[in-house]
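chain below, 183 aa
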Amino acid sequence: MSDKLEIIMELKEKKSISYYMRVWHRYAGFFIAGFVIIWACSGIVLIYRDTDFLKHEKTTHVNLAADINPAELGSALRIRDFRVIKTEGNILFFQGGTFNKSTGVAEVTVKELLFPFNKLAGLHKTASKSGIHWFTLTFGIIMLFMAVSSFWMFKSGSEVLKNGILTAIAGIVFAIILLLFVK
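prediction:
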């Protein structure tokens, strides 16, 4: 009986880094499965951010200084590529709204993603100042670990590992081509 116990103890001691990488990879994969689904859905939604897909209009009123320079109006309203389309009396018209020069009130209509897609898209645009950036940083690190640890899933020198490495190289080359040549 003690011989069997010694063999079991000896087997437990001789586990390789490959064994531990497979175990950590498996449990990290289970842990982040929900995150990956959320990340994928929000990424798909962000692809169509320049369309009205899953969006609704929201009108807000912003009080600004009545004497604000029209050139500064775009930055005050945080509108990219701002330009005045026309002026009628004291009213400046721009894409998505108006500004009354006499009262300083801007009426801005924006299209926002519906709930919960607005929250999901926010994950992709998290700034380092936000408290949730720790979540997105942790998720990124776990995803990096998943990519690297996948090379320990198969025995060294096996045909599956060789094909996996070739496939990974092809994926890296494809990603670089996309980054360099797709606008």
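The CA atoms of residues 8 and 14 lie 10 Å apart. The chain has three domains: 16-54+114-152, 55-113, 156-183.
thats it, cya
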